[in-house]
Amino acid sequence: MAKYPRPLKQALALLEYVTTNLAIDPSKIVLAGESAGGSIALGLALHLSHPQPSLPKLELKSPFMGLALVSPWVTFSSKASSWTRNRKKDVLSIEMCKVWSEAYMGTSTSDAFSEPLTAPRGWWKDLSISKILLTGGGNEVFIDDLKQMGAILDEELLGKVTTIIIEGMSHGESIFSKILGNEGPTRESDAFVDWICKMTET
């Protein structure tokens, strides 16, 4: 596993290549990520307005079309009540997430770019994103943290944020559904496609 901040650095390098070498305007790009990938997508978006000290700055000429966050892992803390309330309903556990977060961080100190929920209030106001989608399942251990993240984004980015909570859904439903042989759409994928379609129509 690549340790923080290397994944963020790699995402930044890819973004620079796409916008500079391929000359694709950010207004045609939707950043997206699921679970830990959602955290990286949030960290990348935050870095563009509040640079992470160890990473190079990148200035873009226009805002991104969108940012899609599918059950993003926004904090390594397991203090939210949903960790207890949903512990028998979700595929994730405190022990599992503790191992993963420690492996990911290594000897690095956690910050707002690895745990977006800990970002200082006001930092999201400068986010260069036109629209944001945040989805989560009502049976996730992450759900209380996801709702808090959605509320913060909505408060600081008025009118740009759509938060969709799908009741009865656990973490990674879209992915595990495919693994189990379901070839059709899921409630989460339907929400994502609907959001994309509405955004590109305007």
TrEMBL record:
The keyword Chloroplast does not apply. InterPro entries: AB_hydrolase_3, AB_hydrolase_fold, GDXG_lipolytic_enzyme. Residues 2-172 form the Alpha/beta hydrolase fold-3 domain. One of its GO terms (biological process) is monocarboxylic acid biosynthetic process. Keywords: Hydrolase. One of its GO terms (molecular function) is hydrolase activity. The keyword Hydrolase applies. This is Alpha/beta-hydrolase.
